[in-house]
Amino acid sequence: MRFFFSLIAILILFNSSSFAQRYELLWSDEFNEAQLDTETWNLWNGTAYNNEDQYYTPREKNAYTEDGNLYIVGLRENYEGREWTSARLESQNNFEFQYGKVEIRAKLPQGKGLWPAFWLLGSNIDEIGWPYSGEIDIMEYRGHLPTQTSGTVHFAAVSPENSDRTPNQDRRYIREEYNLPSGSFAEDFHLYQFEWSDSVMTWYIDDVEFFKLTREEIQEQTSYYPFDQPFYLILNLAIGGNFLGNEQPDKTTPDRNEVIVDYVRVYQDANKKPDVLLDYNDNVNIESTENLNLEAHATDEDGTVERVEFYINTEIIATDSVAPYIQKWSPKIDGCYEFKIKAYDNENKAGTAGPITFIASTGCEIRSFFNKPHFFPGTLQLEHYDYGGLSNSYYDTTPDTNLGNGQGNDFRTTEAVDIIPDENEEDNYLITETASGEWATYQLTIDQTGIYDLELRVVPGTGSGRISFTFNGEDRIYFTSITSQDDQYYTTKSLNGVELQKGAYELKMEIGLDGSGIKPDYLKAELMKATTIEDPKNKQPSSFHLNYNYPNPFNPTTNISFELSSAQSIKLDVFNSLGQHVGNLHSGTLNSGSHNFTFNATQLSSGIYYYQLATETQVLTRKMILLK
Length: 628
Fold this sequence. Notes:
The chain contains three helices and 47 strands. By secondary structure, the protein is mainly beta. The chain folds into four domains: 24-269, Sandwich (Jelly Rolls), CATH 2.60.120.200; 275-360, Immunoglobulin-like (Sandwich); 374-530, Jelly Rolls, CATH 2.60.120; 544-626, Immunoglobulin-like (Sandwich), CATH 2.60.40.2550.
């Protein structure tokens, strides 16, 4: 065991990718004491997860110190109904840290069914659970592969409050393996190292980098980044479990297996980050046309400020390297804008200020254009989309088109949806410059449950267009093959016999195909047959009922069922989120009664899909989620 000098006396320097990190020892356990430090380490008592075989105990025979080393021992023995015992040490609530460098020098066991690991868990796991808390595996090892280890991060695709799935369904991970060039991890001690900052994670073995993962690479798979909080340490030896596949413990596995740890050390960068201040409060109300001087105050106690970056909604709008740090900016478009500053010192360490929110004109609160909902039966003018701003109540691929371009846009001039006067009808406006993927929302109240005829009017483009409407993100209707009709200025498309239920909805219009210049005008709903609560046909006013698919989410198959009140000709089709047809489950006449079809999505990628049941007079569409 190497003697290690005191924390105060030693300052150790390590090199990271392009800037020297002045790493300073924050905490260590050298295991020099005769007894395990129970003020730092909590010992598990019980079983674990992942179909592991061992029973973790706090007994000294499973975890002890000797000759300056920690021994974590897996033993073949009958204990509490299990055939193996082992130990798991955690520093939860005793030692937790955010960012820095971890070094663990250790020797690993060899044998079938052995799964030692050195890892970190987010300190908020008891509040929000796994994988939402985040997990960082510094080292994972399979005893039947004595020359290979791996590093991994686990996280969730969404935050727990935004999830409607199980934790395992939300789980995402990124892993990289390392193969030792000579020898094995069981023959000698090796150094397992991990560096962690707000922007990058890096794994090393014996000072050899084998895995680097940036914040952006993780955020490509999640809207909920959990690695900006304190984490705690875990050292354990599992026996058996999912990670080992078919290589589970058997009679060839040694009866005694030891993970021998020389030391655990945690360092943090001694360089102090710049101090950054803003002149604004949390929320600032401004006009969309207002020109602002954004100013940041940045200083660095132990170095110099090299550059200051100005961010609006996560995008860098300017960089300044000379004080005073000032940038002119105007929102131009109604909405909410998060403003943040990052200042970097001469060692590339960043200090931040913000975010604060600029609320421009109508802001980002979603509300109806008239401050009251639109109504069906009735006519919805499609330029009367909700207030709420870009990416909240609408999405436009060219948000600057209408800003001072001189094309006569005199309606909703500080919003990004492209609108022009209708040259054929006074006081009417058209949405123009449409592109596939653009959308807008409308707060809608349906006054009466019943059967409706829907009419969409547009000015067509030179190609074929497709527009869909979704009610509360569930039922969707499509208007397809929208083309010019006998050289008429307007084109109208109709959907008859659509079942609509009384209630409040967020109606979302989506451009599936822009038709080389399609210009939406209005959507009209005419009530053809009203149904009431007293009407025994209220639940099936359309002579059929389409059930929700099961399971949902699904992979790769799901069941779609429906009931027909009489024999009739039907089509059951599946579309993707762009409205593209991906499959037909049935076309033809079916007898009255219940019918069930299985949809197989083996050849499709994960995403949202819609299944549509259509008769000669009626159409109903529902959403389903393929999750692979």
